[in-house]
């Protein structure tokens, strides 16, 4: 039995005429009549009796009203659920390391708010792992998966990092041909005792023991590179936001890391948060692909 036929049956029973049902359904009366006849053939019984007063329900038709209305309510509930999902409201708080928070999540938040005007997105940029057990955020982005806690963990995407410097700095300092040449340059990196995840210990991979300028914020490091203060290990996805910054020694040095999405296990049953997590994940992947693609188009030096 087709739900659409039941929908037309209910419209006729309520309007008590084919023309009245047709007006409610934006359908011509002859089509309404054909659909009622099709339903009657499927059931094997007449559902309406035509009288001078209009179409009245037969006994068979009267028995069909209750199940047809139940089907109508189910269809309406499903439609309302879709509508709610298409227009999610309320607050969403995302915790993330500041590289992701500064260079990826603003665009993701923009797209989420355009898709769901009633949604409020809060981005928490912290130089540490966000604590979901304490509900510091609804979901978190991390650079390594946690090994404790009642959590759902999803690998989002890989990202790349390279050495980079501003054109002004590169023009004033000795050329770079190999990693050994880094010893003659000023390095920018993390404050060693404030590295909260081993995946962020970039400088040690270069063989350089210490940096001259350091910060616990990757955004501050990038601004120092942009100011011509030295060389830093920067995210490829951040390069397009820093005019004049060029990657160097790309054939000698490259790092690959991953972003992970973390959610509290108790949120598994939340359809709302699941939909938002999927949207955030897709948005981060799309921004990574877009920005790293832009970075690949930028000229490089010292390679």
From TrEMBL:
Record keyword Transmembrane present: no
CDD domains: PBP2_LTTR_substrate
Keyword field: DNA-binding, Transcription, Transcription regulation
Occurrences of domain HTH lysR-type (ranges): 1-58
InterPro entries in UniProt: LysR-type_TF_proteobact-type, LysR_HTH_N, LysR_subst-bd, WH-like_DNA-bd_sf, WH_DNA-bd_sf
UniProt family annotation: Belongs to the LysR transcriptional regulatory family.
Entry protein name: LysR family transcriptional regulator
Annotated organism of origin: Paracoccus nototheniae
Lineage: Bacteria, Pseudomonadati, Pseudomonadota, Alphaproteobacteria, Rhodobacterales
């Amino acid at each position: 039995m087709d739900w659409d036929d039941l929908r037309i049956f209910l419209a006729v029973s309520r309007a008590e005429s084919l023309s009245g049902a047709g007006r409610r359904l934006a359908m011509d009366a002859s089509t309404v009549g054909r659909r009622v006849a099709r339903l009657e053939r499927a059931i094997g019984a007449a559902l309406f009796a035509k009288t001078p007063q209009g179409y009245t329900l037969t006994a068979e038709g009267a028995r069909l009203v209750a199940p047809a209305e139940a089907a109508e309510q189910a269809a309406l509930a499903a439609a309302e659920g879709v509508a709610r999902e298409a227009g999610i409201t309320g607050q969403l708080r995302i915790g993330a390391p500041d590289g992701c928070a500064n260079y990826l999540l603003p665009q993701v938040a923009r797209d989420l708010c355009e898709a769901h005007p009633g949604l409020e997105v809060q981005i928490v940029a912290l130089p540490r792992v966000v604590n979901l057990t304490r509900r510091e955020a609804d979901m978190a982005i991390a650079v390594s998966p946690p090994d404790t806690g009642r959590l759902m963990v999803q690998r989002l995407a890989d990202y790349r990092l390279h050495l980079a410097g501003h054109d002004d700095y590169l023009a004033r300092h000795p050329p770079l041909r190999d990693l050994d040449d880094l010893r003659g340059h000023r390095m920018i990196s993390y404050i060693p005792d404030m590295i909260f995840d081993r995946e962020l210990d970039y400088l040690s991979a270069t063989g350089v023991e210490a940096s001259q300028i350091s910060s616990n914020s990757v955004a501050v490091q990038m601004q120092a590179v942009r100011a011509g203060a030295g060389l830093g290990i920067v995210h490829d996805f951040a390069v397009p936001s820093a005019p004049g910054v060029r990657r160097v020694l790309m054939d000698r040095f490259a790092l690959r890391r991953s972003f992970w999405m973390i959610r509290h296990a108790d949120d598994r049953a939340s359809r709302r948060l699941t939909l938002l997590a999927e949207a955030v994940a897709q948005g981060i992947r799309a921004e990574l692909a877009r920005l790293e693609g832009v970075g690949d188009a930028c000229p490089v030096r010292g390679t």
